[in-house]
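Subject: mismatched residue count in predicted assembly?

I count 769 residues in my input, but I want to confirm that the predicted structure covers every chain. Input:
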Amino acid sequence: MDTYLSLLAWGSGGWGDEIAAGIWLTVTLALATLPIGLVLGFFVALAKNSEEPSLKTAANIYTTLFRGLPELLTLFIIYFGLQILLRNVFTSIGLTPIEINSFVAGMIALSLVFSSFASEVFLSAFKGIASGQYEGASALGLSRLQTMRLVILPQLVRLALPGLSNLWLILLKDTSLVSVVGLSDVLRQSSIAARVSREAFFFYFVACLIYLVLSIISSVGIGRIEAWTRRGDLGR
Amino acid sequence: MRVLKALAAAATVLALTVGAADAKDWSKVKIGTEGAYPPFNYLDSNGDLKGFDIDVAKALCEAMKVECEFVTQDWDGIIPALQAGKFDAIIASMSITEERMQQVDFTNKYYNTPPAIAVPKDSALAGVTPEDLKGIALGAQGSTTHSNYAEAKFSEADIKLYPTAEEYKLDVANGRLDAVIDDVVVLSEWLATPEGECCKILGTLTPDPVINGPGAGIAIRKGEDDLKEMFNKAIEQIRADGTYKKINDAYFAFDVYGG
Amino acid sequence: MTDAALPPPPPAPKGWTGARLAGHVFLGFWVLAGFAIVLGVATGWDGTFLATYGPRLIEGLKVTLWLVFWSLSIGALLSLPIAAGRMSKSRILGGFAFAWVYFFRGTPLLAQTFLVYYGAGSFSAELKALGLWDFFREAMFCAVFTFALNTSAYQAEILGGALRNVPKGQREAAAALALPRHVTFFKVILPQALIVALRPYGNEIILMIKGSAIASIITVLDLMGETRRAFSRSFDFEAYLWAAILYLVMVEILRRVWDLLEKRLTRHLQRREE
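Triage response: the counts match. Full output below for your records.
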């Protein structure tokens, strides 16, 4: 038991600080991806909900693509492909190409995947809002933007929250894939620790426990948000 | 119509500036390396880059009178990263091969050592011929000349590809692999460490000129001949003034430059 | 004055709303992207990539299908006791099943795969003593093992959720008809549960096809593994494009087949046009 605890020690003797740095990276990656994924997913859902067939088709192609491809493949395509694409585009117009580091590549890839699943959640939430709400809002003279902001969005959040919280937990787990493109997240740090110390089972088990703890913390947080969305309900 | 003409004029100006940009000022050079291939390039316990490749790179930069910065990159993505501009040169024991020359340019070699096969100490394997290695689990690092060698010469073996050298070392130590193929120096250095106690060298292999090439060189983006010339001159310089020998002797008991 | 004789007014011309513009822009983007990919492949097309690596990619595809089939089947078998455990009243069985499901659904598949593959490696001596080393030695078996355990947790929840969804009235009615318990379960409850479970099961198959790509990280040469190998030799981005196409085709075929299956099995629930 002591050897195991000492392996996790802080400082140069143990791996505690490296793994903590990994936890930081995992959490920041997930938190950075979340807003982008949500906003993208919302707009894609709007597109799918619109009357315009070309918009619907474009949105459907987007979701088919990023829900159908393995996340690992999407990550590789963004990691290798986006850089090549940007380089070609920038050099053809004569500018020095901007660099995409692994973190940004991971963020983009995970946002694309998250947003395509989130768009489905938002879409079914849209369908769950009665059309009377839109009619009532226009009867009150609210503009389209005001309707969206004051009437639709609060209801949308409540309807979409269970689906979105599920997607957040999946996102937390998917961040582990960036360990394959060299980002020092929890899993990669655990891999390095496992290799050097030769205690593979121990470190990978610790990594799994860390993900479990992160999802427990998330569930608590999401429970709070859910209670907040129901704050207007009558107490029973 | 006038808009189009204006756009065309702008495009031409930009295209010309692209051409002019070729005369690059190489006062700062970013060098990409793997950092997981001891003793040539590895990260020590403080996370600093050490190794033969690193020392040679530093010596070359001094000879070229440029400022060098090191960037670590996973082996699988090291050539795409070079092409993408993440760094300007790869000094990571990358062998000069025809296949790679389709993607990048190489300087002259800076060392050349043959491949070898290592096995667990209690292995029943007799030799390093293809017949001896038939049907066994042979590990190698992916995207290397060693994995290409294994696939070409030992096609009857069950070849397993790993992302880094560290991983195949783990798997031969725990018995998952019957043998591993890599550079003879890399394997010997590993066998001298406590982790390498499990194993021994089965034999050295004769390099194939097409697969293994003339040796390890410095990879640079295609067309950057001025950088290539700078590196080649620097390699000659450190060979001539004894710096190379000093670095060589610090790591190895023999001359790694090879024939 | 009557308008009965007048023809209906012509439909108002659809203006270029913001939505319409955006739609055309995005659709245009996809068309352009598709075109660029086709062009990129066609101009660089000497067929050498497909000629050299095509057969290998197909081999990888076969390995992927093998992996998915065995993981799902073994996982399905495993999910039965787990689902039973989740619904049981016993604290021990219920607790164990809950922990099982929580662990395998709450941790990343990649972490689980490393745990089994490298963990087994670090226990090789003990496993050899138990005679299990030959199994865990093979990366392929480690992958199937991990994926089966993982999907068993998800399938247990799907099955459990579906069984819980069958209205209590069904059980009561069956009891009123004095049907024995196993007849109730297999002839009344299970068929109705399977209809509810059909869509989630289809999703699980798709998730397993996508998740199987992870096996490539532990040296298994499935479709993803062969793709990475092809890219590492040729540095031709085409490798990833072909892999993407193959995965998309697999997923789409499965989705269409499943939709047809669902339609067929729920045909008694659909409104008939009289």
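The first helix of chain B runs from residue 2 to 20. Marking this ticket as 'not a bug'.
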